[in-house]
Amino acid sequence: MPCALLQESPAPLPVPEPGPPPASTAEPSASVRGFVYSVETCGSVDGPGLRYVAFLAGCPMRCVYCHNPDTQNRAHARERTAGQVITDVLRYRHFIRRGGLTVSGGEPLMQPAFVRAIFEEAKAAGIHTALDTSGCLGDLADDRLLAATDLVLLDIKSWEPDLYKSVTGVSLEPTLRFAKRLESKRIPVWIRFVLVPGITDGESNICGLADYVGRLTNVARVEILPFHKFGEAKYKALGLPCKLTETPAATNADVERAKAIFADAGVSAS
Length: 270
Ligand code: SF4
Prior knowledge:
The protein is of the alpha/beta class. The chain has eight helices and eight strands. Helix 3 (143-147) links the parallel strand 5 (129-133) and strand 6 (151-155).
């Protein structure tokens, strides 16, 4: 999630209410509509195994290091039904049989009814489901959605509340509330943390996150994602200024230092 998002970027879309569940399972959720930015048919980094990754459009955050600013609104998205998404997923069923389906974004919980419909269809087809989210809209993920979710990739963008707000534009608290809810439901979580030199790499910031993660009982994996510069070209193409042009990419040494801080808290990070 590297590179920057700016004041000149489009305003966040309004956050939705959770959609009503389908009236019955007879005309299932397949007809629920949503906005898909893009898909990746053989993803290998967004969950276990080879995965079909659907990137949904829309995000209420404005992360300074966002490397996909074009996913933050629906301008570049296509409207699809959950059934159309699953039909396409099933074309790759053989390849993803040891992996599964990941729904990412943007922020997928901008469209909770759509995610729920996709996941319920996927589970009915025996496909492993992973939700890649910042957790800021976790309250919109109803119990039914979570019952159809096998894994959550939870991106905690910083530990210190003021820093979190300055990095993302929103409050940390909903993400932590979602993390505790996932723990109470024993849903496995992969924690992700973007390491940005000079911004999120402060010792107290990493330490606080490591301590918190070390106390959660449902964390299956912790990933440190080093900030990179690949997103800058996208900002240029979109005509948006990039806030982090002067910020260097995180080095291997930076990542090793962060891993050591996690290790001191008893957490093995990769
Ligand atoms: S949550 Fe992801 S898509 Fe949204 S602004 Fe942050 S990095 Fe970009």
